[in-house]
Design brief:
The protein has about 450 residues and is α/β, with parallel strands linked by helices. The chain has 16 helices and 18 strands. The structure holds NADP nicotinamide-adenine-dinucleotide phosphate.
């Protein structure tokens, strides 16, 4: 028999786990009036906004303007923020289900894919995830040490994360000092001895995952020249077809920009950003510390749009003191929620979480934990709308929770000694960060320790 969940008498109570873009877009859809609902959004950190705060590069401030939209969503009377609460730690999923009719996981992809080559874990070999989180002041990564005393850095992968990492390594401290980069990172980057950043792609220029604005920026740096080997721009017929496909205009734009770099004269500004194509890391070598990376030359095989890199057996080496693996993110499991190990996602059918192919009533996913780590921030909007529309369609058939009361869950958490950070609390932390930033000519100086955020309260 259908329940009255989603009506004014009994609004649908939803816990959203994760306060990044997919979480906020889901909240927006839930609170848009299609049904009556109450949304409590959880984050394990006191600060909201997930990837916008801890993933977006500090020198890309315009992308962070989306926070203004999220703040409007947070101001809705049926929205509450439960910051500093870890789901699967402070409260388990079965306990949470006592207070909510539906749980929507928007917890993103917090770790990285492995390269799967020998030497991957040598000192000096890092993941892009940890470097990005470190320079963005994420509390879990603030104490990581990055040794930038080497002259040559290698970045593996050609997505936009690899571009962010390469750009931060290629910029001068002057180019970064007025951003919201963490102070500890700016100090280390200011002492950097890096002269060359090598970006390694296993396929060709027509398949590169970066987007035109990102590759174009390298031509605009004050102390770094982008360098491309013109031989790499000789395309096979399948790649020609790919760049001329009107559905993928960005490919052609990328190619035009790469052509200008290939035609450029040798490095003049100081640092070099060298873009390599058709090469895969085979091994990272060194005694106790990374000394060089062995690369295998690839050729492409397959039809246009589906070309794969195939090793040719031809090897070369780059001497380097540090290397960043940037070959895609992956999600991490939460106890009590089915997990698809191979993809690093929560198995789902259009956002409804499944277990061995069967829908698990009341559990949903959206964003990177639903579809894998792809797309820009805006991609999460239609993705979250799809999940929420399915939740709304299910609402009348969901089992009503035992304790439909946010005060009750607050009391439970407080009883366990958890200091819940509300959105009002966050606004105080936010104001303190902005004030601290002003002193240093930065948009904000992020607190990089949870205890410092809480001390503002
Ligand atoms: P991505 O775009 O999927 O790129 C991953 C890269 O890793 C690709 O070049 C891929 O090559 C390569 N790769 C994967 N496995 C490899 C292996 N075993 N060996 C060598 N190379 C390998 O992922 P991402 O850079 O992590 O970015 C995630 C998403 O966030 C993307 O959608 C991205 O556009 C977005 N993002 C956007 C911005 C922005 O808008 N400014 C900034 C950062 C991130 P293949 O193509 O050959 O698989």
């Amino acid at each position: 028999m259908p329940s009255n969940l989603g009506t004014v008498q009994r609004p649908l109570r939803v816990a959203i786990v994760g306060s990044g873009p997919s979480g906020f877009y889901a909240a927006e859809e839930l609170l848009s009036g299609k049904i009556s609902s109450k949304v409590d959004m959880y984050d394990r950190l006191p600060a909201p906004f997930g990837l916008v705060r801890y993933g977006v590069a500090p020198d890309h401030p315009k992308i962070k303007n989306v926070i203004k939209i999220f703040e409007k969503i947070a101001a809705h009377p049926d929205f509450l923020f439960f910051g500093n609460v870890k789901i699967g730690g402070d409260i388990g999923v079965p306990e949470l289900q006592k207070y909510y009719d539906a749980i929507l996981f928007t917890c993103g992809a917090q770790t990285d894919n492995k390269l799967g080559v020998p030497g991957e874990d040598l000192a000096g070999s890092y993941t892009a995830t940890e470097f990005v989180a470190w320079y963005n002041g994420h509390p879990d990564y603030r104490d990581r040490k990055f040794d930038l005393s080497h002259e040559v850095a290698v970045v593996v992968g050609q997505g936009n994360v690899a571009m962010d990492v390469s750009r931060i390594l290629s910029k001068t401290a002057d180019e970064l000092k007025n951003t919201d980069i963490a102070a500890h990172a700016l100090d280390v980057l200011a002492q950097s001895k890096i002269k060359e950043v090598h970006l390694i792609g296993r396929r060709g220029p027509a398949q590169a995952a970066f987007t035109p604005p990102e590759i174009k920026e390298f031509g605009e740096l004050t102390h770094c020249d982008p360098i491309v080997d013109p031989k790499d721009l000789n395309l096979n017929p399948e790649s020609e077809a790919e760049i001329n496909d009107p559905n993928y205009a960005a490919k052609k734009k990328n190619f035009e920009i790469l052509k200008t770099y290939a035609a450029g004269s040798a490095a003049q500004k100081g640092k070099k950003f060298l873009v390599h194509f058709f090469k895969s890391p085979k091994e990272l070598k060194g005694n106790s510390h990374l000394e060089r990376v062995v690369l295998e030359k690839n050729k492409l095989s397959g039809a246009a749009g589906k070309q794969k890199a195939e090793g040719t057996g031809q090897l070369e080496e780059i001497k380097c003191g540090l290397l960043f693996r940037s070959v895609g993110y992956r999600g991490v499991p939460i106890p009590g929620v089915p997990f698809e190990e191979k993809r690093g996602t929560f198995p789902n059918q259009a956002g409804r979480i499944t277990n061995n192919g069967q829908i698990v009533p009341g559990l949903y996913a959206s964003g990177w934990i639903k579809r894998g780590p792809s797309g820009v921030i805006g991609t999460n909007k239609p993705d979250s709308v799809e999940t929420v529309q399915n939740m709304i369609a299910d609402a009348a058939n969901l089992k009503p929770c035992e304790k439909p009361d946010s005060q009750a869950v607050s009391a439970f958490l407080k009883g366990k000694g958890v200091r819940i950070v509300t959105f009002e609390d966050w606004k105080k932390i936010d104001a303190a960060e902005i004030a601290n930033g002003q002193k240093a000519g930065k948009p904000r100086e992020k607190f990089t320790q949870v205890k410092d955020m809480l001390s503002v309260l």
